[in-house]
Write a sequence for this structure.
């Protein structure tokens, strides 16, 4: 099982490279085996060109190394907070992709301007408030996770599977790490579309609720009818 999960995490990290969402050693992906309480995550600072599935690091939910000789991603603590807070997710991806990160740096949520966005996110992609000085200087990565969780106090993390950490960058998640990587790709495209929408019309309004509902629920939930059974 762990070998399979290592391969899935490795593949998700390479997908971020293939899609142009990461540069050099930017970004990371992880997955959780909830039955065993173990997380597999990309190693810190290892170039994608030389990284292998065997390099993926296995830790427990307290961040203690279980398998692997390399140090885990420096964002591990954030991933662990998300896994503990969002029990339905199975994978987490963090990138510094250009378009989504630009919205995070601007500390602006991404409005749902149209149906492409509505197909994947039930409403705007939220942005977190900036961390306080104390939060930055003590347990920074843990507090990054906590600020995300607080922002989702009244949101369903599966209906809105992404967040922009203010002045930082996006985190995405899904039921699997492959799904989390997929959502990171979609988020980047949605962010680019939103930017272009505001250039074309600075007064653009979000999509009507009826259209948001139609597009989101035809792909998600009990009444979904998009795709094949």
């Amino acid at each position: 099982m762990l070998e399979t999960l290592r391969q899935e995490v490795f593949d998700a990290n390479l997908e971020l490279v293939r899609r142009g969402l990461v540069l050099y050693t930017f970004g990371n992906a992880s997955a959780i085996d909830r039955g065993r309480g173990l997380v597999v995550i990309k190693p810190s600072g290892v170039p994608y060109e030389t990284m292998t599935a065997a390099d993926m690091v296995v830790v427990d939910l307290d961040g203690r190394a279980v398998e692997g000789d390399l140090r885990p991603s420096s964002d591990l603590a954030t991933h662990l907070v998300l896994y503990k807070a969002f029990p339905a997710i199975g994978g987490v991806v963090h990138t510094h992709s250009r378009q989504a990160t630009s919205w995070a740096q601007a500390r602006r949520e991404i409005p749902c301007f149209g149906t492409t966005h509505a197909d994947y996110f039930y409403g705007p992609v939220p942005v977190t408030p900036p961390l306080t000085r104390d939060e930055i200087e003590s347990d920074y990565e843990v507090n990054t996770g906590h600020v995300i969780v607080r922002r989702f106090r009244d949101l369903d993390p599966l209906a809105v599977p992404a967040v922009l950490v203010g002045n930082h960058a996006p985190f995405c998640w899904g039921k699997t790490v492959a799904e989390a990587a997929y959502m990171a790709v979609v988020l980047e495209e949605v962010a680019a579309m939103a930017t272009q929408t505001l250039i074309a019309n600075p007064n653009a309004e979000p999509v009507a609720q009826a259209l948001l509902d139609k597009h989101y629920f035809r792909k998600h939930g009990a009444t979904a009818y998009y795709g094949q059974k």
